Amino acid sequence: MKKLKGEWLDLLKTLLIVLGVFLIIRTFLFLPIVVDGPSMKPTLHNGDQMVVNRFIYDIHEPDRFDVVVFHASEKKDFIKRVIGLPGEHITVKDDQLYVDGDEVEEPFLQERKEHMPSYQTLTNDFDLEQLPGGYETIPDNHVLVLGDNRNNSTDSRILGLVSMDKIIGKASLVYWPLDRFQLIHD
């Protein structure tokens, strides 16, 4: 009887340790998220389940084209792609991204652009000054984000620039559904 009681205590201790490790990982390192809406198609689809790396931006700042999750409001988190970084001026003209006046390719949009009618654009023209806030350059600790589905995305063109303290983390991996399993890359 004592042996059985000891085995149950060992099992309970093991379960508590596993639960504690799980909570630490989930709270500080990785967070599961479900994509809600079409704004990141074709990269991410509505209902995709993914892992967000919560600690990466404690190590370094976001890079251009990182896919990030951020608090858009107190009740809603959004998933978008970082397009502009602090100190930069962003313009989109004739479906071409310009950073500080230099053309920058967006390879993740190429396939979509190729399948669009010639009279249609994926991204309407804009300058940074036309966005909420009217900035000439992106201020420190802020980024400009856009959805990959530019015609159907609530992003910096509407919300304004995103403060770094609103960013939860970087999207790392789609794990469900299995046929969409993929690492998220730039």
Automatic annotation (TrEMBL):
A Pfam short name: Peptidase_S26
GO molecular function annotations of the record: signal peptidase activity
Protein family: Belongs to the peptidase S26 family.
Subcellular locations according to the entry: Cell membrane; Membrane
Coiled coil start-end: none
UniProt protein name: Signal peptidase I
Domain called Peptidase S26: residue spans: 9-176
InterPro entries for the chain: LexA/Signal_pep-like_sf, Pept_S26A_signal_pept_1, Pept_S26A_signal_pept_1_CS, Pept_S26A_signal_pept_1_Lys-AS, Peptidase_S26
Keywords annotated in UniProt: Hydrolase, Membrane, Protease, Transmembrane, Transmembrane helix
SUPFAM superfamilies (UniProt xref): LexA/Signal peptidase (SSF51306)
Signal peptide: none
Reaction catalysis annotation: Cleavage of hydrophobic, N-terminal signal or leader sequences from secreted and periplasmic proteins
EC number: 3.4.21.89
Native organism: Lentibacillus kimchii
Membrane protein topology class: Single-pass type II membrane protein
Principal localisation: membrane
Chain segments annotated as transmembrane: 12-35
